[in-house]
Specification:
about 180 residues, mainly alpha, 2 domains
Length: about 180
């Protein structure tokens, strides 16, 4: 296993987190804000992890009790393994899959994070806002509100109790509707 520099990772993660927070100021949509918030939270968790690893390293280096050497080495070794087998492993859903191509600056941030910290950014737990769609499109056909059939029977079945086939039914099924179903 290569020697990990947790102090450099801590400094890089802190600088990248500041970049994410500054970049968030330019967000215009709820999607952009949600992605920035998720990434900021991810980096905050990584910063907490590196602080714990630095504390374990410090305890190991400053230890003067020979009886605690094995325990402190194991604790520090667990942090190194945690980086290798938890932080560096892809966990399924990738954050890149949720970032629109138009968010170029955010994509550059993701790339810098993956290069500098050596960790992929998953999208586990990412909650994206619902996209807003218009509730109804304006009608392209003018209609008379008094001409609406309340029961809509003839539109569904083609005829309304003894009358001829409706225009909608004829349009959908053709003019060869000689007999009622």
């Amino acid at each position: 296993m290569s020697e990990l520099n947790f102090l450099k990772m801590y400094a890089d993660a802190a600088a990248l987190r500041i970049d994410v927070l500054v970049n968030r100021l330019d967000c215009n949509t709820a999607l952009e804000r949600a992605l920035h918030d998720y990434l900021e939270n991810f980096l905050a968790q990584f910063i907490t992890y590196t602080r714990e690893a630095l504390a374990a390293e410090r305890r190991f280096i400053l230890n003067t009790d020979p009886a605690k050497v094995a325990e402190l080495d194991e604790d520090f070794g667990n942090h190194r393994e945690n980086y290798e087998y938890y932080w560096r492993e892809p966990k399924g859903s990738d954050l890149w899959d949720h970032v629109p191509c138009e968010m170029k600056e955010f994509r550059l941030l993701l790339d810098r994070i993956e290069r500098k910290l050596g960790i992929p950014i998953d999208a586990i737990g990412l909650e994206l806002p619902q996209q807003e769609y218009p509730t109804s499109a304006p009608s392209s056909v003018e209609h008379d509100p008094d001409d609406i059939d309340e029961e809509c029977y003839e539109d569904l079945h083609g005829y309304d109790e003894g009358e001829e086939f409706s225009a909608i039914y004829v349009f959908v099924n053709g003019d060869d509707c000689d007999s009622k179903p």
